[in-house]
Amino acid sequence: MDYEDAARRLIVYSQGLAKGSLSTARSLAVGEAPVLQYLSDKKEAMNPSVLADTLGYSRPRMTRILDSLVSKGFIERKNDETDRRKVLVRITPEGVEHAKQQGDNSVNAVAKQLSALGDESARELINVLEKAYSITYDREPFEKPKRRRRRA
Description:
mainly alpha; two-stranded antiparallel sheet; elongated
């Protein structure tokens, strides 16, 4: 196998999928959805630098993402009550609702695409992506596949 050619194709296809189904379904700029979802899941105020480090964004990129989310009313910035020099970001109720709605829309859009692949191809795609994820990030996938029970 020509792994360099495979790598080029994977990059093109994965970028196309991310720009197509995922970003369109989320109706947020690239980078905003993971930040909004993370803040929605955490349900607590966070330091923007810690948020950037946690999600793997540069600090300037995180600033642009947060500026955009603030302008949309999905998050708010406030000074830390214990140290006024520190700024914290927190998701707004509108942000929580938007994250939930867009998450549902994203799942529905991708499920529709997976169903077009058929059961076997969809399973194969997920298995390969889980392996690539574990190799890339040196960790287990988010959810381990359920083991099938063997019949005696």
